[in-house]
């Protein structure tokens, strides 16, 4: 996509991003309401049902992504608008190393303050998916569907719409990381702070490489590592 293509305005970017997010969430809720009889008050307990949580992700993520692609297409080529660019091998190596270092720092921080490395939400969804015999589907949802959708929103659509000048880079990186952290309401403040740190790293990698495919890969690795820690913790 040519740099001469004007992105959505700052406010329009926020509104369209919010519409995409809400469209996905309400689509997932509608399906759960129809199949499971759940209402809005029951959504907080969805992690305790393996089939429900996986279904919610598999429905909500594609809907959100489709809305983002439609909005991006209106301004030109959606893939370019959303940063769907293959990263260089060296960029992947740097990104993976940075993610590994941040995971170690996060685990050490948990250990130093006497917290469990694995959060209750992680154990809930793992046990629920295991009990429902759909663990592979859960892994697919959290390592592919969620990273692709969330990175397309935060490091793709919002980043593209708000980065107007080079000096806007860090404010946009920090602000999108903040929004990224806020939506992870299933965690407490300590883990939300860690999510924010990963959001800053993903934003910096997006700015430095121009690739949201790279941030999707890194996001997927973080989620996979979290699930591996969960499995090891529960099976020891």
Could you describe the 3D structure shown?
The chain has one domain. Helices cover 75% and strands 0% of the residues. It is built from 9 helices and no strands. The longest helix is centred in the middle third of the chain and has 28 residues. The protein is globular, with a radius of gyration of 18 Å. The N and C termini lie far apart (50 Å). The relative contact order is 0.15.
- Number of separate helices: 9
Q: Estimate the helix proportion, in percent.
A: over 70%
What low-confidence regions span 5 or more consecutive residues with pLDDT below 50?
A: none
* DSSP summary, beta strand count: 0
> What is Rg?
18 Å
Structural class: mainly alpha
Mean pLDDT: 91
| Element pattern in H and E | HHHHHHHHH
Shape: globular
The domain tally reads 1
Report the β-strand fraction as a percent range: under 5%
- Distance from N terminus to C terminus (CA atoms, Å) equals 50 Å
**For the report, how would you describe the main beta sheet?**
none
Key features?
236 residues; mainly alpha; 75% helix; globular
